[in-house]
Amino acid sequence: MIRFTPPATIRFSCEPADEGVIAAPVPAKAYIPDWFRKLPAVDPEVESTSNTGLTVKRCLPFLDAMTAGWIIPLAATVRLEVSEGGTRVDAGWDFDRTMVSNHGMHQVRGNPMGARPPCKFHNFWTITTPPGWSCLFVNPLNRPNGVFEVSAAVVDTDTYRSPIHFPFFATAENGFYVIAKGSPIVQVIPFKRDTATLAADIGAERPEEATARKKILRNTQAGTGWYRVFARAPR
User: Fold this and answer.
1) Which of 49, 77, 174, 232, CA to CA, is 20 to 30 A from 161?
2) Are 214 and 168 members of one domain?
3) Which domain holds residue 191?
4) Given its phi and psi angles, is residue 182 left (phi above 0), alpha (psi -120 to 50 degrees) or beta?
5) Do residue 176 and residue 234 come from a single domain?
C-alpha cells in the first residue's frame, strides 16, 4: 500500500520583495472544494436496499488524493481569453511579474490536446526537499476547474533549487476567464526516491489472495468502514 509520508521539512522560499505579496503555498487539505465540504457522508434521499447512500465523502482514497502534499496557488490574478475553438489563448494580468507565457507547438506536436497551444504559469517559489526526496507536480487532484489543466512532472527538488514553472493547456470553450489570485494551480506531492526496483508478479490469484479479496469486498459493501479502520492499521 502506498502511503503519503511527507519529508521532515519541505521549504518554499521566494525573493524577499515577493514575501507577503504573492499567494503562499498551503497544505492541500486547506483547499477542499466547497462542493465536497457540503456533501453529506450519506445521502438521505437514496432509498434502496441495493444502495447504502454513501457518498464520495466516505471514500478515504478519494480524500487522501485530494489532501496529499501542498497546493501552490496562483501568485496574482490572471485573465485568460480562449478563442478560435481553443487554438488561441491570450493572457493578461495587472502585476509586475510575468504570469503566463507560451511553449512552442512543436514541443508537443501530436499530443491529445490537438491544436490547443501549450502555455505556462510562472511560479515564484523555490521548493527544496531533503536529500533523496523529489516532488510530483500534478493538476490539483479531484478538483477539475473547467478552464485549464496543468501537465504532470517530477522534479528532483533536493538538487534543482530554482523556481519551477508549470506548463498547462487551456481546456475551456471560447470565452473570457478570470483566475483569481490564490486559486490552486498545482498540487505538490513530495516522495522519497528509492533505488530499489519493485519486481512485478503477474498472474492468476492464489487461493489465499482470493479469500482476502472476497472478505475485503464484502466488508466494504457492508458499510463497515473497513478501509479506514484496517488498511491504515499499524503493521
Assistant:
1) 77
2) no
3) 11-198
4) left
5) no
Model pLDDT, residue 112: 76
What was the pLDDT predicted at 76? 96
Query: Is the CB of residue 164 less than 8 Å from the CB of residue 155?
Result: yes
Structural contact between residues 169 and 151, judged by C-beta atoms closer than 8 angstroms: yes
Tell me: do 30 and 113 sit in the same domain.
yes
Domain count, the chain: 2
Residues 16, 29 within the same domain:
yes
Q: Where are the alpha helices (DSSP H) in 23-113?
A: 34-38, 60-67
Is residue 83 located within the same domain as residue 179?
yes
pLDDT given at position 215: 86
Residue 221, in any domain of the structure: yes
Residue 6 maps to a domain? no
HEC profile for 140-177?
A: CCCCCCCCEEECCEEECCCCCCCCCCEEEEECCCCEEE
Residues 220 and 108 in one domain: no
| pLDDT (mean) for 171-192 | 95
Helix (H) or strand (E) holding 212: helix 207-221
The pLDDT tens digits for 73-118 are 999 999 999 999 989 999 999 999 999 998 876 777 778 777 888 9
What is the C-alpha to C-alpha distance for residues 110 and 54, in angstroms, rounded to an integer? 41
- What is residue 50's DSSP assignment? T
| pLDDT for 25 | 97
| Mean pLDDT on 151-172 | 94
Residues 96 and 137 in one domain: yes
- The predicted structure's pLDDT at residue 7: 64
Grid coordinates representing 95 are 502585476
81 and 111 together in one domain: yes
